[in-house]
Amino acid sequence: MYELPYSEACERNKQAILEVLLDVLPKQGVVLELGSCTGQHVVHFAPAFPGLTWQPSDRPEYLSGLAERIRQQGAGTISSPIELDVTGAWPGKFYDAVFSANTAHIMGWPEVEAMFHGVGRKLVPGGVFCLYGPFSEKDGSMVRSNAAFDQSLRARDPVMGIRNLDSLEKLADRSHLRLVERKRMPANNQMLIFRALEANPDD
Ligand SMILES: C[S@@+](CC[C@H](N)C(=O)[O-])C[C@H]1O[C@@H](n2cnc3c(N)ncnc32)[C@H](O)[C@@H]1O
User: Fold this and answer.
1) For burial by CB atoms within 10 Å, which of 20, 32, 75, 110 has the most?
2) In the predicted structure, residue 3 carries a pLDDT above the cut 90
3) 159-162: long-range contacts at Cβ-Cβ below 8 A with a sequence spacing of 24 or more?
4) CA distance 14 to 101
5) Contact present, 107 and 86 (Cβ < 8 Å)
6) Is residue 168 within 8 Å of residue 137, measured between CB atoms?
7) CB atoms < 10 A from the CB of 48, how many?
């Protein structure tokens, strides 16, 4: 039996994330997930949203494990995962919502910019973008455990690092998205909730 990729953090945080998504995602439509990785989030969320179709995605090296988890555990509302590097070509479709967890601190800043720009172009007007992870406050402050995590990321690769809320909000403005809500989550994580403005002049 193929051993599925596994993340302990994903297992711990998936229920708290689901409870927020139940409040903010539309009841019907298609949700694009960026950086689906092990697929643990999408297989946990999909059964709770009978009217939504989920489109998992990731970079090529993660697709086989992701596809296998969906094959073994996925609900019928999960589409086959697609290759999507935020700096490359995006699907020629529009989405009602986009979800991404623990990606912004792994991507370099130009990739974070590409993610926001792509989400801003691919969301329908009024669509929602839920970005989960650790973030620093507008003044740059972070709780001690996040500061240690940030240092370990930067030691691993200087382009990585916990992103600042103020920088993300400015980036959202440039991407025709607006930060509408921020929810505190367990383990000093947050869910940032953005909405696509009614008209995106880039379309
Ligand atoms: C720490 S993992 C998080 C995975 C999963 N979402 C979770 O919460 O456990 C970071 C993810 O970001 C993805 N990622 C990093 N750079 C990316 C890029 N340029 N385009 C798309 N995904 C990217 C990785 O492939 C990986 O799936």
Assistant:
1) 32
2) no
3) 159/108, 159/109, 160/105, 160/106, 160/107, 160/108, 161/105, 162/105, 162/133, 162/134, 162/135, 162/136
4) 10
5) yes
6) no
7) 13
CA of 174 to the centre of ligand 1 (A): 23
The yes-or-no verdict on residue 2 having pLDDT over 80 is no
Max Cα–Cα distance, the chain, nearest Å = 49
Ligand 1 centroid to Cα of residue 82, in Å, is: 13
Q: Which of 7, 59, 82, 98 to mutate to test the pocket of ligand 1 (most atoms within 8 A of CB)?
A: 59
Place of tokens 């298609």: 30
How is the chain split into domains, by residue range? Answer: 8-129+153-196
Other residues' Cβ atoms within 10 Å of the Cβ of residue 193:
20
* Residues forming beta bridges with residue 72, ordered by sequence position: none
106 CB under 6 A from ligand 1?
Answer: yes
pLDDT recorded at residue 83: 98
pLDDT digits (tens, 9 = 90+) for 36-65: 999 999 999 999 999 999 999 999 999 999
**Taking 70 as the threshold, does the pLDDT of residue 34 lie above it?**
yes
CATH for 8-129+153-196 is 3.40.50.150
Distance from Cα 43 to the centre of ligand 1, integer Å:
16
